[in-house]
Amino acid sequence: MDRALPKRFWTSQRIALAGGSMLLLSMLLYTFVFADRRSTLNVEKDKITVSTVSTGPFEDFIAVTGVVQPLKTIRLDAIEGGYVTQKLVEGGSTVRKGDVLLKLENQSLKLSFLQSETEANRLVNELQNTRQRLQIERFTLRKNLADLDAQIEQAKDTYDRQSKLYKDKVVSEEDFLKAKRAYERLVGQRKIDMESQKYQEDNAKIQIKQLEGTLNRTQRNVALWQQTLDNLVVKAPVSGQLSSIDVEVGSNINRGQNIGQIDDMNGFKMRVGVDEHYISRVFTGLNGSFEFNGKTFPLSISRVYPEVKSGRFEVDMIFPQGAPEGIKRGQSSPIQLELGKAAKATLLPVGGFFSDTGGNWVYVVDKTGKRAMKRNITLGRKNPEFYEVLSGLESGDQVITSSYENFGENEVLNF
Questions:
Q1: What pTM did the predictor assign?
Q2: What mean pLDDT is predicted for residues 244-248?
Q3: Helix or strand or coil: residue 346?
Q4: What's the average model confidence in pLDDT over 135-156?
Q5: 227: phi then psi, degrees, rounded to nearest 5
Q6: Is-contact 70 263, C-beta < 8 A?
Q7: Among residues 43, 46, 45, 49, which one has the least CA distance to residue 351?
Q8: Facing residues of 317 across strands?
């Protein structure tokens, strides 16, 4: 007879259901506990640039652009103003020191010169008249003294005779006193005349000295006016090339106005613009180099202009070994300006990532080569080819160095 079998709890259906539940629970547990929940973005690897971090000498230099200029440029400024009557030389001409470039006219200066010259002539005449008057007065005083001395000698003889006769009681006391008073009066008069002559001599010397001082000043003034008139003829102060002269016949020039410049063609320099970021690291004596006609030529900073315009300042660089043959004024050329000596460092190639991250982090490709992850880094100095890595990267690391503009805030990039 048939026997009823007991019902089994773990049927195949239940086992399958339990297994599926356990699998689902495991997947959920892994997702919440172990899975990578970082934001990701799929990118095409052939549209990005991946560079390898390396170790090597870091050459501390920057790339700048220099423009060839004459070693010396002399500004032509009008010493005196006036209107142009003649223009004898055009811009671009070679001139020698002393060559006449322009002739100016200024009626006001001419009138002042004539007035000064007239005053000087008047003073010369006045000085001559004073000297002649003094000489005549000297002759008159000498003649008067000679006459007076003769009268004194005669009065003295009379006085001496009267004195003897008076002692012998031959003449009266009145006659004796009369002779005595006549003699003493003449002696006193001579003394007064001598004092008067000395006073007139001293006074005349003072007048002459004053007139001579005034005349000297006036004559110097005349000489200055003459020099001023001479400055209406504009001459080349040095030999060189007249690179520009910005005036025409009939135009009016003010005193101190710049009318052109002369370039000294005996040497050249490079005028270089440098980003203001480097102003604290650039000083005279720094070296650089540039290529011309396939050869490299050294340069050295001779002057730094500290004024910053539009985020840049300028320096002058000279050729220590002489300017290259064939170089021309106005040519521009890239220059490698050294900021320090080369030193061993970890190097990261320059790329567009820096503008998006400020050099604070990068995407580093993992060992599988299938994804890249954010990593914080610290960068130091920069040259046109490499950044100096201070921390966060090691030699051999693969870093995305192209722009991160399209990556948003994603922390992982999948290729």
A1: 0.51
A2: 79
A3: strand
A4: 83
A5: -65, -40
A6: yes
A7: 49
A8: 270, 301
